[in-house]
Amino acid sequence: MKDAFYFDEMTGHQGDTLREPYQNFDQWFQSENPARLRKKQREAEELFRLTGITFNVYGRAEAAERLIPFDIVPRIISGREWSRLAKGIEQRVRAINAFLYDIYHRQEIVKAGRLPAEMIAKNEAFLPQMVGVSPPGGVYTHIVGIDLVRTGPDEFYVLEDNARTPSGVSYMLENRETMLRMFPELFTQNRVQSVSNYPKMLRRSLAACAPNMAGDKPTVAVLTPGIYNSAYYEHSFLADKMGVELVEGHDLRVVDGRVAMRTTQGYKPIDVLYRRVDDDFLDPLNFNPESQLGVPGIMDVYKAGGITIANAPGTGIADDKAIYSYMPDIVEFYTGEKAILKNVPTWRCSDPESLKYVLDNLHDLVVKEVHGSGGYGMLIGPTATKKDIAAFRKKLMAKPGNYIAQPTLSLSTVPIFTKSGLAPRHVDLRPFVLVSPNKIDITPGGLTRVALKKGSLVVNSSQGGGTKDTWVLEE
Amino acid sequence: MLGKTAGGLFWMFRYLERSENTARLIEAGLRIALTRSGSTEEEWASVLQTVAVYDGFIAKYGTDITRDQAIDWMLRDPQNPSSVMTVIEAARNNAKTVRTALTREVWEAVNECWMSLKQALTRKVADQDLPFILQLIRQRSAYVRGALHGTMLRNDIYNFARIGTFCERADNTARILDVKYYVLLPSAMSVGTNLDNVQWQTILQSVSAEGGFQMAYGQDPRPREIAQFLILDRRMPRSLAFCTEKIRSNLGYLMSDYGTRLPCHDIADAMALRSMQRDIDSVLDSGLHEFIQDFIQDNANLSMQVQTDYRFNQ
Q1: Which domains does chain A carry?
Q2: What is the mean pLDDT of chain B?
Q3: For the segment B47-103, what is each residue's pLDDT rounded down to a tens digit?
Q4: Distance, in angstroms, between A193 CA and closest chain B CA?
Q5: What is the pLDDT of residues A121-163, one digit of tens each?
Q6: Contact: B115, A232; criterion CB under 8 Å
Q7: Chain-chain contact of A227 with B96 (C-beta, under 8 angstroms)
Q8: Residues A40, A186: Cα–Cα separation, whole Å
């Protein structure tokens, strides 16, 4: 029945046990009529479509708005498993913020010889404009999404740190809403930790990072590239739930040394801008001059302490895939502790010896672009055709510094509900972390992405992945 | 509130109102085609003029107007900036932009409106489906309005939505009168042919007001009463006087809410005052056509001034 190679979070490595967190769920599932569940599954999709929880796929006009498929089987994590994970996440996020401060100030880590200087100097994600700038409250990454994968009962790996503008939190919240609406009984049978106050915490956390000049009630706003952006739904969702304005570049202007938004009654200054626009587009005067999405001069206001930008510009240096391979060192350097969460072993193709190893073992490895995202531009050796591998080899040899390689992990599976009952599919997990000057808040759970195709390891929504509600049970 | 949000609300409701008005005019056009023998080309030309899409139509199809082409142009053509599908799409995009200002109910109503019309208007509409689809358009737009009434706070958000609605509606009623004014002129009154009767009915149908007219003025439509009804009757929710008064009062709420009097308030007050002081005989005496043309111009100026005063754009 089951490929014993993978750890299934419901039934274990062999597929013959029922793991503890899933016991109540299993009982419920056994007593349910599959036809009713199928109907519920359709209802859920109808609900998502009506609410408009869609994402835009770039470059495909006819399928411009798509739903991310939602699977009704929750992914369940025990309270004990979670507390250990949460400790590891907190440690990592602390280290990332300390690292960013250091990189844009004294660069002690380079001086100590723990990170090669060229990793910074030659890195596109390093923002020279941020050198010597200290963001309000000392916070660089107000919102972080740490991508985790699991390979065994207590084995988690960090796949990626998302320190720029991580998305997906609206799916976490809407998935829970949907489950609560469709299966209220499940939440009386299981004690599931709530996620619903995330928007409130986000607002509080952002307000706590307001610049000194802001008053008691800082004005917060969300900056979106606009309705055609793939994550627009999330931008409007978060602004709505936080009760703050959703602005676009053309709503903003620098007025009297502040960034201000055009209201029906004139320009009103903003204290904290949660921007969902990339660094490069943030300020046509300081970065990409072609940008229509940003605010001319916002960087100058920022440097003068007139606004908080969340996340801070230049945080990309911390989630860069080449820097990733140094993360265990980075965590140790800044926290003085061993990293709790493991890194996936990574070969940096810029290094000739590693490159040789990677080229010799392409069919076993996952090769990623250093700056890529969304599952594009990567090679998954074990499932790739000979032709794919040959083509990728050429790209890799032309620009080795552009790539890193990792072993193919045996990602854990969680069952999804299919026509023929439960069937295991590979998953990952993106918990969401909020950082304010004195506090790190981690929402219990996060976004579980699931590869709906049997055997597939690609969970990205742009590549046919779906999502699940993620439960962390009370301890 | 962001200026952009005010603009988004204003246009969202203008577009929804426009879709509904277009559907109603097509319905009236179909009715007249059924009751008349011979060519209906002239009637479709007048419908196209009323919804201000005539020039675009002849640029695409030439001056030979067929019913099917006229209907397709008004319902579905993406090249027509006022086709039902174009404006519903625009209304929904505006709704997306102002999503944070809308209740879940209003958003879902406009999203469902878009979803069902997108499906209904994927292909050229077959004759037998037309009545259903025209009804669907009116109904979906009404759902959004219902959700607005039932769930939204009475604040500036609501005011901008209402101002957009009534600017569009006033423009629409005025355009109907502008195209058909000649059948309402006193000189035509004496004729009262069968053809005139049909024209008068059409006017009432295109503002969904046959029943209302009958209730207020009795069985037989008379041009003077029709003009009175559509221009000055404050009980009639699509009359110029009614729309003007709604615009004035909603702008008034904004004025007291924000504590600022702006140029648009002067224009709105002047327009409302004018419709209050006029009676229908003086309108007819001094020239119905001129009156309507002036009104369309004033209404357009008011709409522009609102956009400037409340900073919809840069």
Answers
A1: 1-115+143-194+420-475 (no CATH), 345-408 (3.30.1490.270)
A2: 92
A3: 899 888 999 999 999 988 999 999 999 999 999 999 999 999 999 999 999 999 999
A4: 26
A5: 888 899 999 999 999 999 999 999 999 999 999 899 999 999 9
A6: no
A7: yes
A8: 14
- Answer for the pair A19, A81: CB distance below 8 angstroms, yes or no: no
Q: What is the mean pLDDT of chain A?
A: 92
Q: Which of A236, A250, A264 sits opposite B99 (nearest CB)?
A: A236
SS3 annotation, A374-423: CCCCCEEHHHCCHHHHHHHHHHHHHCHHHEEEEECCCCCEEEEEECCEEE
Q: Which of B2, B5, B307 to mutate to test the interface with A (most CBs of A within 10 A)?
A: B2
Q: From chain A, pick out residues whose CB is under 8 angstroms from the CB of B108.
A: 50-51
Weakest mean pLDDT among A36-50, B161-175, B252-266: A36-50
pLDDT reported for residue A59: 52
- Taking CB atoms and an 8 Å cutoff, what residues of chain B touch A236? 96, 99-100
Q: Which of residues 49-88 of A touch B (CB under 8 A)?
A: 49-52
The H or E element spanning position A77 is strand A70-77
B258 to chain A: which residues are within 8 Å by CB? Answer: 264-265
- B3–A236 C-beta distance less than 8 A: no
At residue B168, the pLDDT reads 97
Whether the predicted pLDDT of B191 surpasses 70 = no
Question: Which residues in chain B have Cβ-Cβ distances shorter than 8 Å to A55?
Answer: none
At B187, the amino acid letter reads S
Q: Which of A198, A211, A432 is nearest to A309 (CA)?
A: A211
Which 132-191 residues of chain B touch chain A by CB within 8 A? 156
User: Does residue A246 sit at the B interface (CB-CB below 8 Å)?
Assistant: yes
User: Taking CB atoms and an 8 Å limit, are B3 and A264 in contact across chains?
Assistant: yes
Question: Using only C-alpha atoms, what is the Rg of chain B?
Answer: 19
What are the two backbone dihedrals, phi and then psi, of residue A229, each rounded to the nearest 5 degrees?
A: -70, 145
B256 close to A (CB below 8 A) = no
Q: Is B258 on the interface with A (CB under 8 A)?
A: yes
Domain boundaries in chain B?
A: 1-152, 166-309
**Is a pLDDT exceeding 60 seen at residue B37?**
no
Region A386-396: what's the mean pLDDT? 92
Write down the pLDDT at residue A375.
62
The whole-number pLDDT of residue A1 equals: 43
Burial class (CB in 10 A: 0-12, 13-18, 19+), B218: exposed
Question: How much of chain A is in helix, strand and coil states, percent to nearest 5?
Answer: 35, 25, 40
Residues A193 and A173: their CA atoms lie apart, in Å, by 12
- List the end-to-end C-alpha distance of chain B, in Å, as a whole number: 15
CA distance A224 to B41: 48
- A248/B100 Cβ within 8 A: no
Nearest partner of B198 among B42, B21, B84, judged by Cα = B42
B259 or A16, greater pLDDT: B259
Alpha-carbon torsion angle A146, A152, A155, A160, nearest 10 = -30
**Hey, how many other C-beta atoms are within 10 angstroms of the C-beta on B69?**
16
- Chain A: residue whose CA lies nearest to B255: A265
CB nearest B2 (choices: A51, A227, A251): A251
Q: How confident is the model at residue A63 (pLDDT cuts 50, 70, 90)?
A: very low
| CA angle (A350 as vertex; A348, A353 as ends), nearest 5 | 75
The answer to whether the Cβ–Cβ distance between B93 and A227 falls below 8 Å is yes
Q: Is the pLDDT of residue B41 over 50?
A: yes
Nearest to A173 by CA among A147, A148, A201, A150: A201
pLDDT the model gives residue A372: 64
Question: Which of these, B230, B25, B9, B244, lies nearest to B138 by C-alpha position?
Answer: B25
